[in-house]
TrEMBL record:
Protein name: 3'(2'),5'-bisphosphate nucleotidase
Residues bound to Mg(2+): 308, 375, 378, 550
Biased composition (Polar residues): 109-133
E.C. no: 3.1.3.7
CDD domains: PAP_phosphatase
EC class (word): hydrolase
Biased composition (Low complexity): 166-176
Region (Disordered): 101-232
InterPro entries: DPNP, Inositol_monoP_metal-BS, Inositol_monoP_superfamily, Inositol_monophosphatase-like, Inositol_monophosphatase_CS
Compositional bias per record (Basic and acidic residues), positions renumbered to this chain: 222-232
One GO process term, biological-process aspect: phosphatidylinositol phosphate biosynthetic process
Keywords, sorted A to Z: Hydrolase, Magnesium, Metal-binding
């Protein structure tokens, strides 16, 4: 028997559709299934890796589908990094495979051996018995499938010599040692790790940003070739405001990203505010950074801003450590100002400066004058869960939104990735690291009244310069789909934030057949603006009052990308009535075009009529 190849893989509770998405996005295939128990519950998932063509047999596909159906109710198997080792017989048929991984939660290396895995009944090692995830990779035996039969010589030639090892035997002891968990460092050091292929594919896609919708581009949204900055064309009003706002959002996203990493590493935590909503260092820090940049850039008039946070919760001796962290995060972030072409403050901001900057967000809004509208971290729940969130900034002039910038640091360019939690993306990212500087996630949308529509650009970082951000910027267009049956709708993840049974009924009434795309935050407006979804619906429960900062920037971006946003009565959202969206009829709906919007309004009327009969 041949031991063919040790491969990096991603193991997780994926259903078959997720796995196909993953395989498209990262050029990997479903190579098997994993089953085990965790805390006494059965758990199962699929293993994704790269292997020879033909490995994915009919059989695997069918079994995966069955598995996906049967394990819907089982607890989640967190995605982990692992490796797959495949065993082939002398005629090149796949006999079995084993899988090893290091469970990050329990810190133990784990694995399975081929004898166990094939039968599922073999003797278990002490380690396997004790391990919280009793891992057994059941590899589909594709030997029976002619499409996977690859002659020995071909198999050997297909791989670099050091990847092909003759297995002396498949004895228990060897299997145990081969099946041990592989750390990501070990994998990193392994020159056989097949990352070159995925990187070059991604690059070749990126190099052709002018593909038509429907073809696979790196951005997956309708793209026109980025021309010389849209900022210099058309009406010149709000040009400078948009420029500063965009820089401020880029910079603030760096702060939020750092804090999100700290939260995921348990170095930082969210706290509950008086109204029981979550707040983090990032909410205060982002608000302070954006407020500071805007007031420095427009010193002629005092900054008026309607923003979510106030420094009230930072008062008191016991809050001193939190306040210190906020001040440090703000100064650390502002020290990166040159990345967006802004000067570093001559002196670090003091605690008072930071508190003042936060408190500039207390404006009451209204019909008169100009004011900025900021949600520093929209979707705080998604943020603390390591998922989607948005930094959203808008400018309202005489009661009308005239500019919007929406930073979505975790929004992937490929829409397929939105089908499941961002944790898979993080695992895959760690596992199949994309080429440095490659734009695969993190989008800043921007638009201004009188400009030339909505634009999307990559988030700035240490690896992505401002020039490169500008060079990759592209127009964002809503989806061209008009048939509701082809449409996808998106909505909040949390049932508490929107009535999901109502939206399910409406979707059914419209003939939408795909499951809703659920995502945290205003990233959903971004998804609409780039054509990932055609409809957005949010119907808050009870007497919840929507805030203007939760919609201003996103709503404007969608409209500038060609979409329509109204309340459930078909009226435009009114941002001129204070800090809340007053007079809202039932909920908020957005569509990629007026045709779909009319259909949605009709479905709403029908559902309202039937529910009030
Ligand atoms: N009970 C409720 N009903 C509707 N929206 C709510 C809500 N509680 C909070 N929200 C708003 O929903 C936003 C999150 O949106 P989503 O559910 O789409 O992720 C929250 O933003 P923050 O997280 O900035 O507070 C908050 O403003
Ligand atoms: Mg919000």
């Amino acid at each position: 028997m041949r031991v063919l190849l040790r491969e990096r893989c991603l193991i997780g509770k994926l259903d078959f559709a997720d796995a196909s998405t993953l395989s498209t996005a990262f050029n990997r295939k479903v190579v098997g299934q994993v089953r085990g128990t965790r805390s006494g519950f059965a758990s199962s998932g699929l293993v994704l890796g790269r292997t020879k063509t033909g490995f994915l047999s009919q059989n695997v596909a069918q079994r995966s589908r069955k598995l996906a159906n049967s394990c819907k109710q089982t607890p989640r198997l967190d995605p982990v990094l692992g490796s797959v080792r495949s065993y082939w017989n002398s005629s090149g048929d796949l006999r079995s495979a084993e899988c090893g991984w290091r469970n990050p939660k329990f810190g133990s290396a784990q694995g399975s051996n081929p004898q166990q895995t094939q039968k599922g009944t073999g003797p278990r090692t002490a380690q396997a018995q004790q391990s919280p995830v009793d891992s057994v990779l059941i590899q589909d035996n594709a030997a029976a499938s002619s499409d996977s039969a690859v002659p020995d010589t071909e198999a050997a030639n297909a791989l670099p010599p050091r990847q092909v090892e003759e297995a002396a035997s498949t004895s228990q002891s060897e299997s145990e040692s081969n099946g041990r968990g592989i750390t990501s460092q070990e994998l990193e050091a392994d020159p056989t790790y097949p990352e070159a292929e995925s990187s070059s594919n991604a690059r070749s896609e990126r190099e052709d940003p002018t593909k038509e919708p429907g073809t696979t581009t790196s951005a997956e949204f309708s793209v026109r070739e980025a021309d010389e900055r849209g900022l210099s064309r058309g009406d010149q009003e709000y040009v400078r405001e948009l420029e500063v706002a965009t820089y401020a959002v880029h910079l603030a996203c760096l702060l939020s990203q750092r804090i999100q990493r700290d939260i995921l590493r348990d170095r930082e935590q969210a706290k509950l505010k008086k109204d029981q909503s979550l707040v983090t260092i990032a909410d205060y820090g982002v608000q302070a950074v954006i407020s500071y940049i805007l007031s420095e850039a427009f010193p002629q008039e005092p900054l008026s801003m309607v923003a979510e946070e106030s420094s009230e919760a930072l008062r008191g001796r016991e809050e001193m450590p939190t306040l210190r962290k906020v001040v440090d995060a703000v100064n650390d972030c502002l020290s990166n100002s040159p990345l967006v072409g802004l000067p570093v403050p001559s002196e670090p901001l003091s605690t008072i400066d930071v508190l003042k900057a936060i408190n500039r967000g207390a404006h009451e809004g209204g019909k008169k004058g100009r004011f900025w509208v900021l949600d520093p971290v929209d979707g705080t729940l998604g943020f603390v869960r390591g998922d989607q969130y948005a930094v959203a900034l808008a400018l309202v002039d005489q009661g009308e939104v005239v500019l919007g910038v929406l930073g979505c640091p975790n929004l992937p360019l490929r829409k397929e990735w939105m089908r499941y939690g961002h944790r898979f993306y993080r695992a895959a990212e760690a596992f199949f690291p994309p080429e440095k500087g490659l734009w695969h996630k993190g989008i800043v949308f921007r638009a201004r009244k009188g400009g030339d529509g909505a634009w999307a650009e990559p988030l700035i970082s240490a690896d992505v310069t401002l020039e490169s951000v500008r060079a990759q910027a592209m127009r964002a267009f809503v989806s061209p789909v008009t048939d509701p049956a082809q449409a996808t709708f998106c909505e909040p993840v949390e049932k508490a934030n929107s009535n999901q049974s109502l939206t399910a009924g409406l979707a059914q009434g419209l003939g939408i057949s795909t499951a809703p795309l659920r995502a945290y935050s205003m990233a959903k407006y971004g998804m609409l603006a780039k054509g990932d979804a055609e409809i957005f619906m949010k119907f808050a429960r009870g007497d919840y009052k929507e805030k203007i900062w939760d919609h201003a920037a996103g709503c404007f971006i969608v409209e500038e990308a060609g979409g329509v946003v109204t309340d459930a009565g078909g009226r435009p959202l009114d941002f001129s009535r204070g800090r809340f969206l007053m007079g809202l009829d039932r909920g908020i709906i957005a569509s990629s075009n007026p045709f779909l919007h009319r259909r949605l309004l009709a479905a709403l009327d029908a559902s309202y009529d039937s529910s009030t009969l």
